[in-house]
Amino acid sequence: MDLLLIFLSAAIVNNFVLSYFLGICPFIGVSNKLTSAFSMGVATTFVLVLTAVVTWMINNLILLPAGLDYLQYVSFILVIASLVQFVEMFIKKTSQPLYRALGIYLPLITTNCAILGLALFMALRDYSMMESIFFGLGAGTGFTLALVIMAGIREELELADIPKPFRGVPITLITAGLLAMAFMGFSGLI
Amino acid sequence: MSKSNSPINDFMNGIWKQNPIFKQVLGTCPTLAVTVSVVNGVAMGLATTFVLLFSSLIISMIKSLIPNQVRIAAYIVVIATFVTIVDIVMKAQFPELSKALGPFIPLIVVNCIILGRAEAFASKNTVVRSGFDALGMGAGFTLALLVIGGIREILGSNKLFGFVVLPDTVEPMLIFILPAGAFLTLGILFGIANNYEQKQKDKIIQKAIAAERSAKLVTVPAAPQTETEEA
């Protein structure tokens, strides 16, 4: 039950993009097309779950017992950067179609704040291994959800008559604001 | 030395012409998250400026030592080191502020402005120029946070810098300190900035057209003369 709660909380109620503002850059950058938004979401979710496992182990098995918690940021970001690199190489070797679908988005994930944010929140809240995995899964689902909804809206916006200065980024931000308002409706859920 | 290379120009570049938020759309995550009040926004801006300045200086100093393949990883380690310093200092000196900003101080590591400037500027230019560029970018970022934070604080809680500025009869619009308000404020400000930019551009174009016309007016009477001479 607790695990389900963590998952739902990260995915919907405290959506990573719309209420924690993590991962805004890809949210604005890659939400032009539905298909690429979905690919980006899946790739990010995959890295999020992997990061949750690896950083949990590093933090709880190495850094905390050795009293090195001031090295958290440096080691987390290095783990994430190398993890992303590793995932990229692995996918390239094993599945060419998947690599071609995700290829360009993979390196971008390193600088996605959602990944480091996840690692930091986990450390802050003292999650167990299982909780961390569900937290990562929830965060990824929430990110994908927000990205796909946004891409759907933006595809329709192409046809709308928007005042010239508001085209592009401004209207995307305003749409995100309305979307965030809609997601506020979930706040009573937990 | 040409004008575009002067340190002052590097500095001014960041404030408006290449403002990290309104022009380059970098660092949007902290912008939206911490601008609940002016104080939080400015604190975030200053912390980012500190990290930006010192990582730019160090990276431009050691740029020739870093092998090209691992440069991004090396930059990130430099940046993460300075972020750790900021975080520890803030926890000790300003515990309340550190609590309010929460995980967004460590998240400066992945602020695209810093890595972006390291890659685009500090890795190619001298130490002095990189320093001024970093200061300009930091100032531009802080100013943008100040404006956004100010608007949200006044509208959302009737206060500015923590002091009450609007009378009680004005109902505070709570939405502006909630996440949705952050998106709306930045979106509208962005539109206004774009509009201003467009008008400036139109003015320049119109001036150019006017100049061309007046130049033509001078040359037009001369044209038939040459024709008659030829005839």
How is this fold's topology laid out?
The complex is a heterodimer of chains A (190) and B (231).
Chain A: H1 2-13, H2 24-29, H3 34-66, H4 72-94, H5 96-102, H6 105-108, H7 113-125, H8 129-157, H9 169-184
Helix pairs in contact in A: 1-8, 3-4, 3-7, 3-8, 4-5, 4-7
Chain B: H1 7-17, H2 28-34, H3 38-62, H4 71-93, H5 95-101, H6 112-122, H7 127-157, E1 159-160, E2 163-164, H8 179-219, H9 222-230
Antiparallel strand pairs in B: 1-2
Give your account of this protein's structure:
The complex is a heterodimer of chains A (190) and B (231). The longest helix of chain A has 33 residues, at 34-66. With 190 residues, chain A is mainly α. Chain A has helices at residues 2-13, 24-29, 34-66, 72-94, 96-102, 105-108, 113-125, 129-157, 169-184. The model of chain A has no long low-confidence stretch (mean pLDDT 85). Chain A has one domain. Chain B is mostly helical and 231 residues long. Chain B contains nine helices and two strands. In chain B, strands 1-2 form a two-stranded antiparallel sheet. Chain B has helices at 7-17, 28-34, 38-62, 71-93, 95-101, 112-122, 127-157, 179-219, 222-230; strands spanning 159-160, 163-164. The model of chain B is unreliable at 226-231 (pLDDT under 50). The A-B interface holds A 18-25, 28, 70-74, 77-78, 81-82, 110-113, 115-117, 120-121, 124, 163-166, 169-174, 176-178, 180-181, 184 and B 25-26, 28-30, 32-33, 72-73, 76-77, 80-81, 83-84, 87-88, 102-103, 106-107, 109-112, 115, 175, 178-184, 186-188, 190-192, 194-195, 198.
